[in-house]
Amino acid sequence: MKKHLVILILGILLISCLDKKKQDDNKLLGNEVVTFVINQFPNNHDYNKEIYISGDFEGWSGGREQFKLKKKNNNYSITIPKYRETINFKFTQGNWETVECLENGNPIENRTYAFTGQDEKVEVNIANWYNLVENNQVSTASKNVHVFAEDFEIPQLNRKRKVSVYLPPNYETSNKHYQVLYFQDGQNVFDVKTSYTGEWEVDETLNAMYNEMGFELIVVAIDHGGNKRLNEYSAWDHEKYGKGEGKLYLDFLVNNLKPEIDKTYRTKPDHNNTGIMGSSLGGLFAHYAAVKRPDVFGQAGVFSPSFWYAENGFKFTEEHPNNTKFYYLIGDQEGEEMVNNMNRMVELMELNGFSNIHKKIEPNGIHSESFWKTEFKQAISWLFINQ
Fold first, then answer.
1. Among its keywords, does the record have Lipoprotein (predicted)?
2. Would you say 242 and 248 are in contact if contact means Cβ atoms under 8 Å apart?
């Protein structure tokens, strides 16, 4: 009798656990889905290639196996559950070098889908793939932008990375020392030729600011790590997306790259003259770096931060108050979850000793470089000029 009772109790517990798991899965994924169907391609599309969807719901990885589209009769499709109210995404052939683009090779804006409360099917046309027209792209980088290293060593992660540097227009004709800004997602900072979603036009903006007001700044742009981008820009492990490598990546910036930059160029190396900036997951990392190392970074530009990815970041921030200048930006069209998380973080910081914060929620702002580049001048002025 006792044996049967034990078996019965164990059975009830097992059913309860399965029900809870099902509830948790439903909470994570949502009950509604959208199915994207691609049925039109450029004439030179290779149907032997796989196609992936990549977006803010999976960390802008460029192409994860679980987000590979199914192919049938030269049509591709994928069903995406409701990860959040609104998702931003693009299609690739496995990495950002093969992202979809306009017919002439120029980047397109991020695609956006807002869940409606019911299942839907959305048909998509692909105008072109970036790798098919890349050679036709003309570099838009200014003459005062150069490649510092094509393959700078990241010993902490056993990887290499391209690093580009913008120097003020008067750098070669002066003996001045300059403030420095470290920028994430370096492919998108200076040059439309290397970008996969459009460029920030940081060099054009800073050249104009120099001509208008004499503002001078060195910018160090570090390319992201492709399919390692998500891991490198988060300091915390993620149940679905793997190990957080942000601590190691920050150690690389502080102890390997920054000393080389300070040795090579006439910089002002102290924290009051050193900033960090990024958007999306790069914004998450810029926030973490400035919270973790206020002795290194005195300014942080945090655009459209992906706080959804790292819940542990809230507790970590609460425990590390400092006087670094933080500039937070988000567009009200980036989704309720994104806006609410940024508001939650800023409120937490204001309640726990952070005293140097600026927050901006821009009406009609979207999750894209076209939005961020229009806001760069205002952010950089608050961070570096209004001191």
1. no
2. no
